[in-house]
Design brief:
Strand order of the largest sheet of chain B: 7-6-5-8-9
Strand content of chain B: 35-45%
Number of strands of chain B: 9
Bound molecules: zinc ion
Number of strands of chain A: 13
Oligomer: heterodimer
Helix content of chain A: 25-40%
Shape of chain B: globular
Largest interface: A-B, 52 and 54 residues
């Protein structure tokens, strides 16, 4: 088995751009580019690839990509069900399971988003500028589980992710005294990390806490700079066995452990989870997952040299820091205020690429890419001698995470 | 017709056979939660199976429509043309409903005056003869 232990051996991405800026290349063509670059980075040939894995709501089906990329054989085609970006690390974990069990030898995990070519995420397809429908509202048929879940809260205008995730964050502020300034410090820290990253969409746009506090309110407590970017672009990572990894181009990064899942009743997160247990409502919903992850990895939060934490919204990062045990429940705000997440001497440099708040929103697979770069010494905000990295995907929705390590 | 708080163009509920009875009751200004027939566990949103005992048998319990704000957000982006901003989305912990919380809106309240724990009561809004939406306002006298 040890010969087959899963490692990440290649990473790649297309240029990242603001929402709607990539209109002349299709989303699946971008996926192909990212996959080709990741395989090249690994020093592998496309003929070596026999598996493709992605996660929820992917429009770019593995079977079609396999044909376009000329794979000799597709032995593993996998998609995780966790919603939105929640399944990014789970897709890596599934790829790891595939290579460790011998289902496949080389699996590429990919994500491509060209949201400008589709309806705007968070609008629910609703164009608020349009004249109201002259027909009187009626109850309409929901023809999918997703529509049944979101459709139940649509008449309340709960369509925007920024509003949904504001709900647990607001309660966290009520329970523990968490402040908007503490959330703002997260955004400022990640923007500072992005300033050294030429791939970062917001790399050239410095952000101060005053800028954050002056930014327009979107859904209280989320100001504009509490919300992740909306981006166009694609990235990919290559997973193979330890045996294959030894002879390849770059220093392999071991997947020490992966976990995925959700607490009881979590459904589609804050769009539908108003009735989860009180003790997990104002959390990232990932504490139990985190405990399983640390147990499996044989390391704990104090062993992490760096972290890439899914940052769709600042409050969700704060609650994950508590879930994963970097600080106690309710102490995420002071932990952030202490400067812990900063590359400049922080105890846990986090989102060294700038995250979804400042690099790009590729549903968090770019956090896996950065985790690998951090352990190869290739990050633009390098943490010297880093040997361990936590990467998380999603939070406040069904979620997943991996622990990466190098020997 | 009731008072109006939101414009006609607000997104409409999308129902299936599991959730439709909630909206049918709402059209009659009855707020209901789903109740497991064998074990009495109450649930929202409606779902085909009781998460407590896994029974598929359920009925509908009308609840008084009072509760308190569990959490909330003031949304500054419109979901329909002509909508007053910000508008308030809240989770309400319902009284006498088996501990069920409901996602809804707060109306008739200054967004800056909203607090977690604030007592609220039903404010029905008839969007059309076919659709009434349960919203909540601060309890009279508080
Ligand atoms: Zn039951």
């Amino acid at each position: 088995m040890s010969q087959r232990k899963a490692h990440i051996v290649g990473v790649g991405e297309t240029p990242y751009a603001r929402w709607g800026k990539i209109g002349d290349v299709t989303e699946h063509a971008l996926a192909c580019q990212a996959i080709l670059r990741a395989v090249e980075d690994a020093g592998l040939d496309m003929d070596d690839v026999d598996g493709l894995a992605s996660f929820a709501e992917d429009r770019n089906e593995a079977t079609f990509l396999a044909a376009e990329l000329g794979l000799p054989a597709l032995r593993f085609a996998n998609m995780v069900w966790l919603p939105g970006g929640g399944g990014g690390c789970a897709a890596v974990g599934n790829a790891a399971m595939a290579v460790e069990t011998g289902q496949a030898e080389v699996v590429v995990v990919y994500r491509s988003l060209c949201q400008g070519q589709f309806f705007r995420f968070g609008s629910g397809g609703v164009d608020a500028s349009a004249a109201p429908d002259p027909a009187p509202p009626t109850v309409q048929a929901a023809n999918s589980l997703m529509l049944a879940s979101v459709g139940f809260v649509m008449p309340y205008g709960l369509l925007m992710a920024a509003a949904a995730y504001a709900l647990p964050t607001r309660r966290h502020m009520h329970l523990y005294g968490t402040t908007s300034e503490q959330l703002g410090m997260l955004a400022v820290t990640f923007r500072e990390h992005a300033s050294r990253n030429p791939r970062a969409v917001m790399g050239g746009r410095p952000l101060t806490l005053a800028d954050h506090q002056a930014s327009p309110m979107i859904a209280d407590p989320h100001r504009l700079f509490d919300c992740c970017l909306e981006s166009d672009g694609a990235c990919a990572v290559v997973v193979t066995t330890e045996e294959r990894a030894r002879d390849l181009a770059k220093r392999p990064v071991e997947i020490l452990a992966s976990e995925q899942g959700a607490p009881q009743g979590y459904g589609f997160g804050p769009f539908s989870n108003a009735n989860v247990a009180d003790e997990i409502y104002a959390t990232g919903g990932t504490e139990e997952l985190a405990n399983r992850l640390w147990g499996k990895a044989g390391v704990g939060p104090s062993d992490m040299d760096v972290a890439q934490i899914y940052d769709h919204f600042t409050g969700c990062v704060l609650m994950q820091l508590e879930d994963y045990g970097f600080c106690k429940r309710g102490e995420g705000g002071p932990f952030i205020e202490s400067g812990a997440l900063s590359w400049h001497g922080g105890s846990l440099p986090t989102n060294t690429h700038g995250g979804s708040l400042s690099e790009a929103y590729i549903h968090g697979l770019n956090h896996v890419v950065e985790g690998v770069r951090a352990l190869r010494g290739e990050s633009t905000s390098p943490v010297e001698g880093a040997e361990t990295c936590l990467v998380t995907s999603g939070a406040c929705v069904p979620s997943s995470a991996i622990v990466l390590g190098r020997r | 017709m009731s008072e109006r708080f939101f414009p006609d163009g607000m997104p409409q509920p999308l129902a299936d056979s599991t959730t439709l009875p909630f909206w049918e009751a709402a059209a009659e200004h009855r707020l209901v939660v789903q109740r497991c027939t064998p074990c009495g566990h109450t649930r929202l949103p409606p779902a085909p199976v009781c998460p407590a005992c896994r029974s598929t048998e359920s009925d509908w319990q009308e609840v008084p429509g009072r509760g308190e704000v569990y959490t909330y957000t003031a949304v500054h982006r419109p979901m329909a043309a002509g909508q007053d901003l910000p508008f308030l989305i809240a989770v309400i912990a319902l009284e006498d409903a088996g501990g069920v919380r409901i996602i809804s809106n707060l109306v008739d309240v200054d967004p800056d005056a909203v607090e977690i724990g604030m007592p609220v009561e039903l404010a029905w809004e008839d969007m059309s003869p076919d659709l009434a939406v349960p919203r909540f306002r601060p309890c009279a006298g508080t």
